[in-house]
Write a structure and sequence with these properties.
CATH topology of the largest domain: TIM Barrel
Strand content: 25-35%
Radius of gyration: 25 Å
Number of helices: 10
Number of domains: 3
Shape: globular
CATH class of the largest domain: Alpha Beta
Distance between the termini: 25 Å
Amino acid sequence: MQFDARGVTPLVGEEIRQTMRCGGSDIGVTTHYLTKDGRAWLPVMGELHYSRILQKDWEKELLKMKDGGVEIISSYVFWLHHETEPGKFNWEGNYSLRAFIQLCEKHSLYFFLRPGPWAHGECRNGGFPDWLDLACHGKLRCMDKVYLGYVKRFFREIADQTKGCRNIIGVQAENEMMQNHTYLLEIKKLLLESGLCAPLFTATAWGDGAPFPVQELLPVFGGYPEAPWEQHTKKLPPHLHNFFTKERNDAMIGTDVLSVTRQNQENGSKSGDCQGTVPFLTCEIGGGNQVTYHRRPLISAKDVFTIPFTMLGSGCNLLGYYMYHGGSNPVLHGVTTQESRETGYLNDYPVCSYDFQAPIGECGQIRPSYTALNLLHQFVKSFGERLCHMESLLPDMVPRERMDTKTLRAALRTDGVEGFLFLNNLQRNFKMPAHENITLSILLQNREILLEKLYLASDSCCIIPVGLTIGGKRLKYATAQPLSVERGADGNEIWRFLPIQGNEPLCYFEEETIALTESGVLAGNTILKLEHPRSFVPERGRKLALQCVHESIPFTQFRYLGLTDKTREFLVTWDENETYLLVDPIGNVAQAYHEGKLIADWFCYGDTWVIDVRDLFPRSITIKVQPLTEEDNIYLEVPMERNTCKLSVKAVQGETVFMDCGWGYDWKEG
């Protein structure tokens, strides 16, 4: 296998948007990357919906995101959450957009505004208020003057709430509306007229490669581990972004709504064919997936990690996650706010839970994907500026088709002189064979580098540095993955590396070979250290005794699923100092009630359900479990016992729950 980078030169972006001041820095956009204070910048963005989180928890959760390497917080502004009655807006408490953005600013986090007006986000009506359809006579998401008048009023309210906020780095116009750029540009015009201005104006660009107005809006892309919105219950084929590719567009996203929203095509640039004119930016790399009633994939840390890893190797210069932090749907005036078939959409979702299997779950629980992604984010923080100037190359041998599990999956980001080799051997739901005795030839401008006897374990991936200068010494390559670079107290650099499973951690310099150690070795005036990152101890908890009780709560909250009530009820109590319950139900669906009020729910799929009980008194809840029957046609990846209802509950203390370790830790430690 060979990479030919002899004709490659450093990418120098041409400015395509006017530089603007934001968060104390000058933010710009070029043809290849974003800039911050005149330097190439590869940031990490993560989505958290402020109106799905308790206001008292905002600061704590934002700090978790920042610790995970996130620099930009993005959020939808769900119209439905703010204007349940025409002209009556609620911007208080959990809905205080201004307070949330100010908290981001307090902690030096940028904010990316996604105001819709149609958002989706698995919210009822896609986030439109219930009254809007009648008021507009069904003419929504179009150029109708009545509709646009209501949109303008909503945008002006948002502008009032964000006035004086200096950290709004971007605004997204609409969502999943690729086929009508006249409408998209009208939405951008209304946003600007309302006073909403930012360095970045974007629109989602996935779908069927429709024309896209790249002169006015930056296209942003995504990719999810699974597609629970697909209307069948069969196993999906391998995902596009388990491979390195020049294709930015993932046509699988949004297939549940695009058939409804497609408009006539108009002349313009195709969203998936804009390399060299706009940078490769993302906003919806799946930090997990929200399960639907009929499709319930169990997303692992491997599944989450693979997509940003391959996208980065393929040239992505903004890693944007949806969701990075889960949440819970609010109930407004006694009415639930989740998307459902009952409300005219194709999928049924839980009433309360919007956990999304995200790196940080709906109750703030830390999943293994959080730590796994943090390794990638540390790499991006240290080497992102270099990556921005590097082209993504594919080798002379690539997989023939998506079921090809034997051909090595590789990409090289290089400026022609140095680079980073990305190797991926991860594919969701498929066991990948190990690659032994790998030989790779990399032709750079002034030399050939031959990598020999590399080992890539099954279900693993790695980044190998090639041709870098470290401590004044020329590195050929290393059999360890660069993690970060920092300055020591003496001003000299410290390079930290991760071991690559099955390989002795060595740095092959032109003059010598250096074995990496945890205590550190010198290469010129630079310290090289082998790192084993921190890992969290998963919660064990105190197992609670459960009491089966007579069914006393009507089976009403899941009426939209059309199920016959076969539930069993369990009474759960806990001690005063216990804050969260870890619930493992066996069944179909489950609900938790406190004094007769629904407080949490779950579609059972094999993951642990976390329930926040910090503010509940008396300290007891009732959990209803509906069994999974032979008639239930549901895609499950964890076998679930049928025709039974079982429950295991543990109580834990503290402010943050750490879930089972899993792959993120095994991989780090080689």
